[in-house]
What we know:
- The structure holds two protein chains of two kinds.
- Chain A is α+β, with helices and mostly antiparallel strands.
- Chain A folds into three domains: about 1-205, no CATH class; about 220-370, no CATH class; about 380-450, Roll (Nuclear Transport Factor 2, Chain: A).
- In chain A, about 45% of the residues lie in helices and about 25% in strands.
- Chain A contains ten helices and 13 strands.
- Chain A has helices at about 1-65, 70-90, 95-115, 125-155, 160-175, 180-190, 220-230, 295-310, 365-370, 380-385; strands at about 240-250, 255-260, 270-275, 280-285, 315-325, 325-335, 340-350, 355-360, 395-405, 410-420, 420-430, 435-445, 445-450.
- In chain A, strands 5-6-7-9-10-11-12-13 form an eight-stranded mixed barrel.
- Chain B contains seven helices and three strands, in the order H-H-H-H-H-H-H-E-E-E.
- In chain B, helix 3 (about 55-70) crosses helix 4 (about 75-85).
- Chain B has two domains: about 5-35; about 50-170, Arc Repressor Mutant, subunit A, CATH 1.10.10.
- In chain B, about 40% of the residues are buried.
- Chain B has helices spanning about 5-35, 45-50, 55-70, 75-85, 95-100, 105-110, 120-130, and strands spanning about 140-145, 160-165, 165-170.
- In chain B, a hairpin with a 2-residue loop joins strand 2 (about 160-165) and strand 3.
- The model of chain B is unreliable at about 30-55 (pLDDT under 50).
- Chain B is mainly alpha-helical.
- The interface between A and B is large, with 67 and 52 residues.
Amino acid sequence: MRNRYTTAIIALAVFWGLTAFWGVTQVQAKRKAETALENKYNRAFYESLQRSKNVEALLSKGLASGSTNNMDTLFSDLWSNANAAQENLHQLPLSHNVVSRTSKFLSQVGDYSYSITKQDQGKKLTERDRKTMRELYEKAGSLNKEMMAVERQAAAGRFHWGEVKQGLRSNLTKGSSSAVDNTFRRVDSQLQEIPVLIYDGPFSDHLERAKPLGVIGKGITADQAQKIARRFIDFKNAKITETKSTGAVRGKIPAFSVEFHTGKNDGDVISANVTKKGGHMVYYINPRSVASIKISDSKASTLAEDFLQSRGIKDMVPTYTMRMRNILTISFAYKQGDVVIYPDLIKVQVALDNGQILGYDALGFLMSHHKRDLPQPRLTMDEARQKINPELKVVAERMAVIPTTGKHELLTYEFKAEMKGDTFLVYISALTGEEEHIFKLLKTPTGTLAL
Amino acid sequence: MDLQKPQYHLAIAIAVFLLFSCAGYLVWQQGGPNTASYFDASKNMAEASPESNADNMELLARVIQGEAGDEPYLGKVAVGAVLMNRTRSASFPNSLSGVIFEPYAFESVSNGLIWQFAPSDDAVRAAGDAFSGMDPTYGALFFWNPSKPVSPWIWSRQIIAQIGNHVFGR
């Protein structure tokens, strides 16, 4: 009996020992992982802080500098530092609402400075620019003061980034916020009143408020929207079993949503949006799968052109195509006289099994299409061709309006040119003769995509 | 000590059970989120490993699958469009991978779900459509499921549209 107890106790002790050993290794592993994560977060934070301090310093140097050349260098540095500060900020485990202003500030400071480097010599740093930069400099200063307050708390061990992680998870569901979220909120609130920045860059404030230029006409009802969509969409013999108005969309272009069911499955629903004003089709999409290719890309292109013609959308030229999952997507651009207007973009998707038009997307067209007063070119096509790198062999040329990063428009000469088997698109400004853009055409097995 | 005695059977059974569960747990722990799904998604393992040369479109398709796998096709394109819109917004990271891996931006990224299943054909096609500029949300930066608990802050956003089970806003 005694012997039996001894054995049982030994056995239990061994199991207990094993469990304890296992537990300790688990705790160690967990600590290691937490430290690794903590270090990663700290690296991102300190990187962001340092870059943000650089931004402040560079802004003041830019204000002090008297040489345009040096200013260009300073502003490109500013751009890369602001970018790095923003990138690292987003690696921190913080709720979006406590970093959004800081992030926007950093994006815009960099983007704005960069846009100045692209301005003409004479226009560089006007009095208004200097005023804006002084404001930005002050804001950067108060931002950094708060960032350093966070840094002191982190260094003093007042919080761990790991805690933020836990806090955030509950923040998402319960709405409470963590200590570090609150600390950072003070950083973000320094930037409540940043100047509105309008310039030629992708993050300029004017882009947020863009109005659709191509949406013209009288208001329509939801019923009319349904009829318009029904006439527009290529159903190709499919029987419509049900038509539904699925409400209104309150985006940049107010629109009605319509759905057509052509069967019982999820894939048998064609969705469409029609603008409330003018009853223009914004997009429609038919998600049916396409089995096998029976028609060629060029035949599909012709079908897409016929489709646009028959829907009363005229003067559109195909620009580039992409084939994916047996569907050919063709991008059409508007042509005003001899000039291709790239911002006025419509995409058409053709099923390569039976030529049905599966998708139509005119959002770009409706946002930007209007009758343009194109400026008189200050140089001829021949003069523009001289500006191209002589190593490139020009194979095609025409005039084109292209959007700048800030969605302004620029009249250019477009050259398709080749060099050592690679194809490029080169854009020379028709007003200044500057090379504005160069794209490399990537030939992929799925088609040609301009990059 | 006679191990044949019935009194020992229970002890041996418990020992074996403990040992195996410890070993099993350790293996599971070390494998991380990838092997957590080993049993239910084993046939997708080769494709689903993060080492596979996942370019941006593939990554986008995975997030679409994770966030909107059960949504109608349009809802998938819409989620993809939100990600694309974020890359163009000043208050979000400027790259697709930055947007996707922003901590706690997407639940399916946080919990590793995006690596567990290969994206469906629909998700891949939706990623392509969103990538080439289709946007049924007209510039939305947020989406959420109103029937699930969400931060009250999200309701201060301007709502643009409801597509499937998701509300889209900016």
